[in-house]
Design brief:
Layout lengths: L2 E3 L8 E8 L2 E9 L7 E3 H6 L9 E6 L4 E14 L2 E11 L9 E3 L1 H4 L2 E6 L4 E6 L6 H11 L1
Parallel strand pairs: 3-8, 4-7
Antiparallel strand pairs: 1-10, 2-3, 2-6, 4-8, 5-6, 6-7, 9-10
Amino acid sequence: MPTIPFDPRRRLIQVPVIVTVNGQRQGLTFILDTGAAQSGLSQSVLTDIGINWQSADRFARVSTASDNISVPIVTIPSLEVFGITFTNLSVLALPFPIGVTADGVLGFDLLSRFWLFINYRRGLLVAEPMNRFFHRFALVWQIFRAW
């Protein structure tokens, strides 16, 4: 069960993610976004890792801070976060503005599969998969250690 440090002064939590496309593993950084319904990657990162988001045939409406937009939905062959690998995962191809220091966002579709504990004072995130019921003691121990 991962314990991930973060800088609480930055006002966001970034987590490491590994995406595998055509056998190539790529380490990326995602922002934990509890307000996002679905996870997504920036369009430029998708292009860099070989996913053709411009020919997508599925789209989703997304509300941003300033607009409602339609964005492509693409499939990522493999995405690993918090030690769990998800295969054939549908994600949004997001038009990140210049200056965003992350490669993607983790939304409710993935976050809802984990027990999450965030200690902002110490800058620690503890994540445990929901399906590991018998590992709850380990989660409690990690939370106790993080406190």
